[in-house]
Amino acid sequence: MNVCDNLGDHLVGNVYVKFRKEEDAEKAVIDLNNRWFNGQPIHAELSPVTDFREACCRQYEIGECTRGGFCNFMHLKPISRELRRELYGRRRKRYKLCMSEEGDMCSSDHRTVFHFGSVHFERSLAQ
């Protein structure tokens, strides 16, 4: 899960979540588009991006970004230890994951490949 801490209109309030199964990502989009947060509708959509490393601000990661919250690269807000454990803790215990030669995640027996989908959540700016 990537939570943007930027202030620019195109990144403010954005959250990116990876799913192991594409159908789970699709269901999340449908369900979330019927939800509200903080008095505003949630706008969720599928994203073709599965690797956000190139979209992250390297200067921000080392504490040297001079553009502040209006930087066009993602400034990731850390998620709490409890949420991280809830999201990722069980998966680590249940699956021994590795990288396949193609760069996809696979099970330890190299037979099952997991393709990740992403859901992009955007905060509505309408009042």
Automatic annotation (TrEMBL):
User: From the UniProt record, which GO molecular function terms apply?
Assistant: RNA binding; zinc ion binding
One GO term of the cellular component aspect? U2AF complex
Keywords (alphabetical) are: Metal-binding, Repeat, Zinc, Zinc-finger
- Zinc finger intervals, C3H1-type: 51-78
Give the record's GO biological process terms. mRNA splicing, via spliceosome
Q: Does the keyword DNA-binding apply?
A: no
Coiled-coil ranges from the UniProt annotation: none
Q: Which domain of life is it from?
A: Eukaryota
Q: Report the residue ranges that make up the C3H1-type domain in this protein.
A: 51-78
Q: What is this protein called?
A: U2 small nuclear RNA auxiliary factor 1
Species of origin reads Haplochromis burtoni (Burton's mouthbrooder)
Instruction: List the taxonomic lineage.
Output: Eukaryota, Metazoa, Chordata, Craniata, Vertebrata
